[in-house]
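Go through the following before class.
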Amino acid sequence: VNRAVGKTSGLRLNLMAEDVNAVGRDEVKKSGYAVAAAYGIGIGTPTRLYGFAQVSKGDNVPDGGIPSVGYPGFYNATPTIQAAPRVDPENYYGSVRDYEDTESSQFTVKFEHDFESGVYMTNTTRLSRTSLDRVLTGVSTGNAGIFATNLTDRSTWTVNRSRQHVVKDNDALINATNFTASATTGAFTHDLSYGLEFSTEKVAVYGVNAVTLLDDQRANLYRPNPNVDLPVNGLNGTRTFVKLNVGSAYLFDTIHFGEKWLFNAGVRVDSYGITTKTLTNGQIEGDGTLTSYKAGLVYKPVETASLYVAYANSKTPPGTVNLGASTTTVGGSDVATNINNPNVDPTETRNLEAGVKWDVLSGRVSLTAAYYSTEHLNEFVENPFNTGFGENFGKRAVKGFDLGVVGKITDKWNLTAGIQTMDTKVEEGQGTTTSATGAVTRWSPELAATVWTTYEVSPKLTLGGGARYTGEQVRANTPGVDLATQNVPFIPEYWVVDAYGSYKLTDKVSVQLNVYNLLDEDYIATLNNGGSRLIPGAPRSATVTLNYQF
């Protein structure tokens, strides 16, 4: 709902509610609501003030997945179980006491001012709070996960279940002030962006009791009972409180010289402090200052084409990945053995990209091509020569090409397509039992592609469709390990085809049909790190939407 309150003010209100069952999955669903409002004053004047508020609540039934029995790569030391067929992909192995409650609230105030000198200033303050309380049932299908006391009767086979309970709150306060300005010095024109940011984030994680399920609380492998009542891991009174404060300053400059060249460069300095408190281990503190930078060069040989090269880095300090510092050591040593130890060096990511953008067909279509190389340095990994001790020596690299096309081939024909290659390698690192050097990175397909197109058959009817391809994604990535004995070591490649149609009933009303997975492709959407459980891709489904424009 949009409404003009006055000549220089306005109000916008958005409402949303959903209660949707997951396609192809029994019991799993998403339900909840969200309310968002925005109000602005001074619109159209040099000084403007906006207020935004958003509140949402979710009451979901989470998906713990299904056993990976029978899927490509499934492994069990018992030949009869190894040869067992898949379970019904709609099976639900959870409990009636599984739930996921989420709450989120966000309040933002944004102030804008246009100075007569041409400087544009914005100041944004945002206060947010999110909370999560989730109980999820997982299944285990390794050698010790499936119980078949009678191998000849699959109806008696059972599978281990685990209870996972997460309770945490997150509060954040952020204030950012940014200035943009333009200046000319001789033959160079500068577009400047500079400013300051301050933030504080607080996280509270509540400890839960471990729950060991009894033998009779295992799930029947092929006919699980979705109405079973399993115990919930209750709160045990322990808590971990984390506070992260960050102050930042940055300056970016885009320099134009001549009609064909553009150079941009920038630097950012972040000063941080992180504090972790627990009721048993007291308080751990860490702080530091990080400097990151970026630079890029653009050349336009003709008006419709651009060649570019860019280089940038970023750093991640210890204790901020999982928002919690730790001083865990081995054998009483003072050597850090945890990536979140405040004495560990920051990890660094470096990214190089070079490419071209070319507008064709009178600017209606953009063609892009790029080469990228990303290196992650100083990873904290276990020392291969001293088991149990960690050091900052890990390094991994990702390289590849990215090709794309987007635009209107004709006035009626729209096309969006892209293809990306990904060559990943651990150049220095350590696995669980042996060196990881030479391994590929988990969940990184060597090739991924997507295409989507629509065609306006008539002023009222539009038809379209597309396809998504994802290459094989490796799970077990330690060199030298026999994949034949690894449980589902990879997600096989897959194609998914979708279709679309829209028909205008009136100038304001239209009906839309979306068909997902048109060919009913059987594929794995997600696989857990151990290969024991997965979530199958959604089968063929369709939605009909009625659109009304106010």
User: Anything to note?
Assistant: Residues 330-335 have pLDDT under 50 and may be disordered. Residues 79-82 form the longest helix (4 residues). The longest strand covers residues 158-185.
